[in-house]
Amino acid sequence: MSKRRYLALLFAAFALVWAWAAVHPLYRADWLLENYLVFLFVPLILLLGRWLRLSQISYTLITLFMILHVIGSHYTYAEVPFGYTLQRWFGADRNMYDRLVHFSFGFLLAYPVREVFIRVSKARGFWNYYFPIELTLAFSAVYEILEWAAAANVSPSAGLAFLGSQGDIWDTQKDMLMAGIGAVLAMLVTFVIANIVDRDTWASVRESLRIRDDEGPIGEDQIAAWWRRRQNAAHASD
Q: What is the mean pLDDT of residues 85-106?
């Protein structure tokens, strides 16, 4: 199957789930708040796709996460039926669907983040696995801030449904922790697979942690070097 056709199938699958979620959601105001993410990021992903051209793996992972998200928008995160099943499995005192989605945020999106990071930064070795975790955690924190800002500017009932904290004062911190755990597991799986396929993986990691003798400090020494370069360029142009 061609990549174009595969991506079209992914989009169609997401569109079908989104259409289902949009029909008679449990709480329309919460559905709208949750779908601002969809209205913003789906067009953005489609537009950036012409430039980034991510792998089929990355687009599949992104689609899976977005499907989980729109399912939550249909029921509200605090009332998804499968969340009650998870609650029974883990012996929790709350619906666990939002924890699943925040874990999936890290587990499913860390790899696409890694792919973009490597292609943009040309990073190597250890940093290919470490910084995607940091970036995913940063995105999770940004989402929590946006969630708070949105909830603070709507009716209290809509805000509570949107936050889905279910009375837990540490809900935000736990959500970010779940995203971090998911991202770490995703990078561990990625590293194991890379190590199986490419026997130079460990050597690349070790090499990336070395600092060459010619790589000095980049604070005041770098500023001084820039200044000397500017002065030399100015003298050369005279």
A: 92
DSSP character string of 167-215? T-TTHHHHHHHHHHHHHHHHHHHHHHHHHHH-TTHHHHHHHHT---TT-
pLDDT tens-digit map of 178-189: 999 999 999 999
The answer to whether 187 and 114 are in contact (CB under 8 A) is yes
Contacts of 179 (CB under 8 A, 6+ apart): 102, 103, 105, 106, 136, 137, 140
Per the CB < 8 A criterion, the answer to whether 152 and 159 are in contact is yes
Summarize pLDDT for 153-184 with one digit per residue, the tens: 666 666 666 565 666 677 788 889 999 999 99
Asked if pLDDT for residue 33 goes beyond 80, the answer is yes
Which residues lie closer than 8 Å to 31 by C-beta, 6 or more apart?
21, 22, 25, 73, 74
Give, to the nearest 10 degrees, the angle between helix 127-151 and helix 28-52: 150
Give the amino acid at 178.
M
CB atoms within 10 A of CB 51: 6
- Tokens at 104, concatenated: 């999936």
Output the six-digit token pair for 141: 């924190």
Q: What secondary structure letter does DSSP report for 78? A: G
Give residue for tokens 């993410």.
37
> If pLDDT is split at 50, 70 and 90, which confidence band does 218 have?
confident
Q: How far apart are the first and last CA of the chain?
A: 62
Largest CA distance in the chain: 78
> 168 with 94: CB under 8 angstroms?
yes
